[in-house]
Design brief:
The complex is a heterodimer of chains A (115) and B (118). In chain A, 0% of the residues lie in helices and 53% in strands. Chain A has 115 residues and is mainly β. In chain A, a hairpin with a 4-residue loop joins strand 8 and strand 9. The radius of gyration of chain A is 14 Å and the shape is globular. In chain B, a hairpin with a 2-residue loop joins strand 5 and strand 6 (53-56). Classes of the chains: A mainly beta (115), B mainly beta (118).
Chain lengths: 115, 118
Protein backbone atom coordinates (compact mmCIF):
# COMPACT_ATOMS: atom_id res chain seq x y z
CA UNK A 1 0.00 0.00 0.00
CA UNK A 2 1.09 3.52 -0.67
CA UNK A 3 1.85 5.94 2.14
CA UNK A 4 2.41 9.67 2.19
CA UNK A 5 4.28 11.42 4.99
CA UNK A 6 4.31 15.10 5.83
CA UNK A 7 6.66 15.63 8.73
CA UNK A 8 5.89 19.30 9.34
CA UNK A 9 2.55 19.76 11.11
CA UNK A 10 2.99 23.54 11.13
CA UNK A 11 5.14 26.02 9.27
CA UNK A 12 5.28 29.79 9.23
CA UNK A 13 6.87 32.25 6.87
CA UNK A 14 7.20 35.99 6.60
CA UNK A 15 5.17 37.60 3.88
CA UNK A 16 7.17 37.86 0.62
CA UNK A 17 9.62 35.18 1.74
CA UNK A 18 10.02 31.63 0.44
CA UNK A 19 8.94 28.49 2.24
CA UNK A 20 9.32 24.80 1.43
CA UNK A 21 6.90 22.13 2.59
CA UNK A 22 8.17 18.57 2.73
CA UNK A 23 6.52 15.38 1.56
CA UNK A 24 7.81 11.86 1.18
CA UNK A 25 5.95 8.85 -0.07
CA UNK A 26 6.33 5.15 -0.45
CA UNK A 27 5.17 3.09 -3.40
CA UNK A 28 6.16 0.09 -5.45
CA UNK A 29 4.58 1.51 -8.58
CA UNK A 30 6.68 3.08 -11.29
CA UNK A 31 4.03 5.31 -12.80
CA UNK A 32 1.91 7.55 -10.63
CA UNK A 33 0.86 11.13 -9.93
CA UNK A 34 1.65 13.44 -7.06
CA UNK A 35 -0.36 16.46 -5.99
CA UNK A 36 -0.33 19.32 -3.58
CA UNK A 37 -3.74 20.47 -2.42
CA UNK A 38 -4.49 23.63 -0.46
CA UNK A 39 -7.35 23.99 1.98
CA UNK A 40 -7.88 27.59 3.11
CA UNK A 41 -9.93 28.35 6.22
CA UNK A 42 -13.09 28.41 4.05
CA UNK A 43 -12.47 24.66 3.68
CA UNK A 44 -12.75 24.21 -0.09
CA UNK A 45 -9.76 22.12 -1.06
CA UNK A 46 -8.17 23.14 -4.32
CA UNK A 47 -5.38 21.68 -6.42
CA UNK A 48 -2.18 23.70 -6.31
CA UNK A 49 0.13 21.68 -8.49
CA UNK A 50 0.53 18.19 -9.93
CA UNK A 51 3.49 16.11 -11.04
CA UNK A 52 3.50 13.07 -13.28
CA UNK A 53 6.13 10.59 -12.14
CA UNK A 54 7.31 9.87 -15.67
CA UNK A 55 8.24 13.52 -16.16
CA UNK A 56 11.70 14.46 -14.98
CA UNK A 57 11.02 18.18 -15.16
CA UNK A 58 9.69 19.69 -11.96
CA UNK A 59 6.22 21.19 -12.24
CA UNK A 60 5.76 24.93 -11.79
CA UNK A 61 2.62 27.02 -11.39
CA UNK A 62 3.40 30.70 -10.97
CA UNK A 63 4.81 31.10 -7.44
CA UNK A 64 4.46 27.40 -6.68
CA UNK A 65 7.03 24.84 -7.71
CA UNK A 66 7.96 21.34 -6.69
CA UNK A 67 11.20 19.49 -6.17
CA UNK A 68 10.44 15.96 -7.30
CA UNK A 69 13.11 13.41 -6.46
CA UNK A 70 11.79 10.10 -7.72
CA UNK A 71 14.61 7.92 -6.45
CA UNK A 72 14.35 9.45 -3.00
CA UNK A 73 10.53 9.43 -3.17
CA UNK A 74 10.43 13.04 -2.17
CA UNK A 75 8.03 15.71 -3.39
CA UNK A 76 8.45 19.09 -1.73
CA UNK A 77 6.49 22.25 -2.46
CA UNK A 78 8.18 25.61 -2.66
CA UNK A 79 6.12 28.77 -2.34
CA UNK A 80 7.93 31.89 -3.44
CA UNK A 81 6.97 35.45 -2.53
CA UNK A 82 4.52 34.20 0.10
CA UNK A 83 1.24 36.08 0.31
CA UNK A 84 -1.36 36.31 3.05
CA UNK A 85 -3.74 34.33 0.87
CA UNK A 86 -1.36 31.38 0.94
CA UNK A 87 -2.28 30.69 4.55
CA UNK A 88 -3.94 27.28 4.55
CA UNK A 89 -3.56 23.58 5.23
CA UNK A 90 -1.46 21.96 2.54
CA UNK A 91 -1.90 18.30 1.75
CA UNK A 92 0.44 16.18 -0.28
CA UNK A 93 -1.32 13.38 -2.15
CA UNK A 94 -0.47 10.35 -4.26
CA UNK A 95 -2.52 8.70 -6.96
CA UNK A 96 -1.65 5.53 -8.80
CA UNK A 97 -1.88 5.01 -12.50
CA UNK A 98 -4.91 3.99 -14.50
CA UNK A 99 -7.24 1.75 -12.54
CA UNK A 100 -6.16 3.08 -9.16
CA UNK A 101 -7.96 6.37 -8.91
CA UNK A 102 -8.10 7.07 -5.19
CA UNK A 103 -5.89 9.66 -3.57
CA UNK A 104 -3.67 8.84 -0.62
CA UNK A 105 -3.04 11.91 1.51
CA UNK A 106 -0.50 12.98 4.08
CA UNK A 107 -1.51 14.47 7.41
CA UNK A 108 -1.14 18.03 6.18
CA UNK A 109 0.98 21.07 7.00
CA UNK A 110 -0.63 24.19 8.38
CA UNK A 111 1.07 27.22 6.83
CA UNK A 112 0.87 30.57 8.56
CA UNK A 113 1.90 33.76 6.81
CA UNK A 114 3.35 36.43 9.08
CA UNK A 115 2.61 39.97 7.87
CA UNK B 1 -20.35 26.15 -13.57
CA UNK B 2 -21.21 24.90 -10.09
CA UNK B 3 -18.52 23.04 -8.22
CA UNK B 4 -18.90 20.07 -5.94
CA UNK B 5 -21.45 20.90 -3.27
CA UNK B 6 -21.99 19.16 0.01
CA UNK B 7 -24.86 19.34 2.48
CA UNK B 8 -24.96 20.07 5.33
CA UNK B 9 -21.82 22.05 6.05
CA UNK B 10 -22.05 21.16 9.73
CA UNK B 11 -23.93 18.50 11.64
CA UNK B 12 -24.01 17.82 15.35
CA UNK B 13 -25.76 14.65 16.39
CA UNK B 14 -25.94 12.45 19.43
CA UNK B 15 -24.34 9.05 19.59
CA UNK B 16 -26.74 6.47 18.25
CA UNK B 17 -28.53 8.80 15.89
CA UNK B 18 -28.51 8.65 12.11
CA UNK B 19 -27.01 11.24 9.81
CA UNK B 20 -27.10 11.48 6.04
CA UNK B 21 -24.56 13.51 4.14
CA UNK B 22 -25.15 14.55 0.57
CA UNK B 23 -22.77 15.33 -2.27
CA UNK B 24 -23.63 16.85 -5.63
CA UNK B 25 -20.73 16.36 -8.03
CA UNK B 26 -19.88 18.52 -10.98
CA UNK B 27 -22.26 17.78 -13.83
CA UNK B 28 -20.82 15.17 -16.17
CA UNK B 29 -18.36 13.76 -13.66
CA UNK B 30 -18.77 10.00 -13.53
CA UNK B 31 -16.21 9.54 -10.77
CA UNK B 32 -17.35 10.40 -7.26
CA UNK B 33 -15.27 9.85 -4.13
CA UNK B 34 -15.86 10.10 -0.42
CA UNK B 35 -13.02 10.87 1.97
CA UNK B 36 -12.86 11.55 5.69
CA UNK B 37 -10.45 13.46 7.88
CA UNK B 38 -10.46 12.72 11.57
CA UNK B 39 -9.03 15.58 13.65
CA UNK B 40 -5.29 15.93 13.16
CA UNK B 41 -4.94 12.90 10.96
CA UNK B 42 -4.66 12.30 7.27
CA UNK B 43 -7.54 12.45 4.85
CA UNK B 44 -8.59 8.87 4.25
CA UNK B 45 -10.33 7.38 1.27
CA UNK B 46 -13.73 5.84 1.93
CA UNK B 47 -15.10 4.81 -1.43
CA UNK B 48 -15.27 5.49 -5.14
CA UNK B 49 -18.28 5.44 -7.47
CA UNK B 50 -18.18 5.27 -11.22
CA UNK B 51 -21.63 6.46 -12.17
CA UNK B 52 -23.94 4.47 -9.88
CA UNK B 53 -21.56 1.56 -9.34
CA UNK B 54 -19.23 1.18 -6.38
CA UNK B 55 -15.79 0.80 -7.92
CA UNK B 56 -13.87 0.61 -4.67
CA UNK B 57 -15.29 0.62 -1.15
CA UNK B 58 -12.19 -0.65 0.58
CA UNK B 59 -11.99 2.39 2.84
CA UNK B 60 -15.43 2.11 4.40
CA UNK B 61 -14.78 1.62 8.13
CA UNK B 62 -17.68 -0.72 8.94
CA UNK B 63 -21.26 -1.57 8.08
CA UNK B 64 -22.62 1.45 9.89
CA UNK B 65 -21.66 3.42 6.80
CA UNK B 66 -23.82 3.17 3.68
CA UNK B 67 -23.14 5.08 0.50
CA UNK B 68 -25.45 5.32 -2.47
CA UNK B 69 -25.44 7.06 -5.79
CA UNK B 70 -28.78 6.41 -7.38
CA UNK B 71 -28.93 7.33 -11.05
CA UNK B 72 -25.27 8.19 -11.08
CA UNK B 73 -25.83 11.79 -10.05
CA UNK B 74 -25.70 12.90 -6.41
CA UNK B 75 -24.50 10.63 -3.66
CA UNK B 76 -25.46 10.14 -0.03
CA UNK B 77 -23.42 8.77 2.82
CA UNK B 78 -25.46 7.56 5.76
CA UNK B 79 -24.03 6.76 9.16
CA UNK B 80 -26.32 4.63 11.30
CA UNK B 81 -25.96 4.51 14.24
CA UNK B 82 -23.32 7.19 14.67
CA UNK B 83 -20.48 6.66 17.14
CA UNK B 84 -18.13 9.19 18.72
CA UNK B 85 -15.22 8.10 16.51
CA UNK B 86 -17.20 9.00 13.40
CA UNK B 87 -16.61 12.68 14.10
CA UNK B 88 -14.56 14.41 11.46
CA UNK B 89 -14.80 16.22 8.17
CA UNK B 90 -16.28 14.27 5.29
CA UNK B 91 -15.14 15.35 1.85
CA UNK B 92 -16.64 14.52 -1.48
CA UNK B 93 -14.75 14.84 -4.75
CA UNK B 94 -15.61 14.26 -8.39
CA UNK B 95 -13.71 13.91 -11.62
CA UNK B 96 -14.19 12.99 -15.23
CA UNK B 97 -13.93 9.33 -16.03
CA UNK B 98 -10.45 8.46 -17.24
CA UNK B 99 -9.72 5.59 -19.57
CA UNK B 100 -6.41 4.47 -20.95
CA UNK B 101 -6.53 6.97 -23.78
CA UNK B 102 -7.24 10.07 -21.77
CA UNK B 103 -4.78 12.18 -19.83
CA UNK B 104 -4.79 12.82 -16.15
CA UNK B 105 -8.05 14.22 -14.81
CA UNK B 106 -8.24 16.46 -11.79
CA UNK B 107 -10.39 15.68 -8.77
CA UNK B 108 -12.48 18.63 -7.56
CA UNK B 109 -13.42 18.72 -3.90
CA UNK B 110 -16.41 20.04 -2.04
CA UNK B 111 -16.11 22.13 1.09
CA UNK B 112 -16.76 19.16 3.31
CA UNK B 113 -19.27 18.32 6.00
CA UNK B 114 -18.05 18.68 9.55
CA UNK B 115 -19.71 15.94 11.58
CA UNK B 116 -19.63 16.05 15.35
CA UNK B 117 -21.00 13.14 17.31
CA UNK B 118 -21.60 13.91 20.99
Amino acid sequence: AQTVTQSQPEMSVQEAETVTLSCTYDTSESDYYLFWYKQPPSRQMILVIRQEAYKQQNATENRFSVNFQKAAKSFSLKISDSQLGDAAMYFCAYRGNFGNEKLTFGTGTRLTIIP
Amino acid sequence: EAGVTQFPSHSVIEKGQTVTLRCDPISGHDNLYWYRRVMGKEIKFLLHFVKESKQDESGMPNNRFLAERTGGTYSTLKVQPAELEDSGVYFCASSLFRDRGTPNTEAFFGQGTRLTVV
